[in-house]
Amino acid sequence: LLDEAEEWLWGEDAYKADAVAAKREAVLEKAKELVPEYFEAVEKEKKATEAELEAEAAAAAATAGDDDDEQREDRIHADTRKLKFADRFRLVEKNKAEGTELFKGGNIHHAA
Known about the structure:
Blueprint: H1 2-9, H2 17-34, H3 36-64, H4 69-76, H5 85-104, H6 108-111
Helix pairs in contact: 2-3
């Protein structure tokens, strides 16, 4: 079956997209007739994976409301810019100085 399809690909009609798509469907149908167990197992695995993903999405949606404000704020204000080393280090030193100032001022919650 596959050897015949490969030979066809080297033929003259294989340059047409419609012909290739039709040949692919024909080969797939023949394969489904020859080994239906395989395709049933693939379909069962696909459904199981989809169900697992839906369960994970539901669990994530359920716990999404449990985020505290600080974690959400950290995600929103995360710095993802691409900076040169010197610029990044300057920013780090500035953040460190700000944290030290907050800590010395007694605002321990925001210093971390």
